[in-house]
Amino acid sequence: MSCGLYPGSQDHEELDAKTFESWGVDYLKVDGCHLDLQKGRSYYEEFEYRYKLWHEVLTTKLKKPFIFSQSAPAYFSPNFHLDKNNTDWYRTMEYVRKNGELARHSDDIKVYGNNPGNHFEPGGHWESMMNNYIMEVRLARYQSCGFYNDPDFLIVDWPDLSMDEKKTHFALWSSFSAPLILSAWIPDLTKEDIAYLTNKDIIDVDQDALCEQATLVSQSESIDVLTKNLANGDRLLTILNKGSETETIRVPIEYLGIDPDAKYTAKDLWTGKSRTVSKEVRVDLRTHQTAIYRISSPNKKRLNPIPTGQIFNTFSL
C-alpha cells in the first residue's frame, strides 16, 4: 500500500516498472510505506529484499535503466527510532549505494501544508531543514560519484523562511553535492529566489566532478564549518551560523588542511568578489546565514591539502 493508502507496487515491481517505462518515466523514487513482511523476513530483511529486487528489475527488465531513488534508509534513521544504535541505518546505507543513484536517508523535509486544502502551516521548516542537514553530515562516507546522499527537497517558497535561510538551504545542499530538487510553485518564485537558485558558482560546487560531500571540520553551539576538495585543486569553505544572533567568525586556514602561512584567494560565491586571505578567513554572519567560499592559490596551482576533519560521535551528534 502506498503512503497515500492507495494500492502499491509490492509484488508487482516488474509490471509497474514496465508501465512507468511505457509512460516515458526515467526517474523513480520508491518509498517504503506500509511494507508487508513476507516469508518470515524481518523488517530490515524485507526492506533489503524489496529494494534489491527493484534494482534488479530496473537494470535487467527495461530497455534503459531508470535513475533510482530509494527511501529505505529513512525508515532506519534516528528520526524513526527503529534501531536505537543506528546499526541498521548504516547497514541500509551500505546496500542502497549499490542499488541506485541516490537515497533519502532521514525524515521528510516539512511540507507546505499537510491538510486537505494544502493551506500553509507555519513553523518548523528551519528546524526540519537543520534535521536533514545534520543527518546528512553523518553519512559522508557513503557518497561517491554515481551515488548521492539525498537530504530531500529545496523548500524554496515557504513563507516562514527568511531569504538568508533559503540561501543557507541552497548553499548547504550544494556543498554536499546533493540533488537540487525544488519543491515549490515555480510561477510564484521571486526574482531574488531565481537569482540565488541560478548562481552558477554555487551550482558548479554542487556538480563538481569529484562528487565529494563537504564534511565538518569545526562545530560549536552556533557555528558549523565544513570543507571539501574541488576537482581543479581548490578547497570549498562553508560557514553556517545556526545561532540566533549575528556573529563574527574567524576560521583558521589550517582547518582547511593547507599551509596557514601562505596567502590564498577567497572567492565569495554569493557576491563573486575575491579577496586575499592569510592565517584565517573572517566573516560576519546574520542568524541562519551561510557563507560559501572557493579557496584557491593565487598562482592557480593545486592546493594538495592534508586530510582534515572533525571526529564526532555519529549517534549523539
From TrEMBL:
One of its GO terms (biological process) is carbohydrate metabolic process. This is Alpha-galactosidase. Residues 222-295 form the Alpha galactosidase C-terminal domain. It comes from Lentithecium fluviatile CBS 122367. Its EC number is 3.2.1.22. It catalyses: Hydrolysis of terminal, non-reducing alpha-D-galactose residues in alpha-D-galactosides, including galactose oligosaccharides, galactomannans and galactolipids. The keyword Disulfide bond applies. Keywords: Disulfide bond, Glycoprotein, Glycosidase, Hydrolase, Lectin, Signal. Belongs to the glycosyl hydrolase 27 family. SUPFAM superfamilies: (Trans)glycosidases, Glycosyl hydrolase domain. GO terms for molecular function: alpha-galactosidase activity; carbohydrate binding.
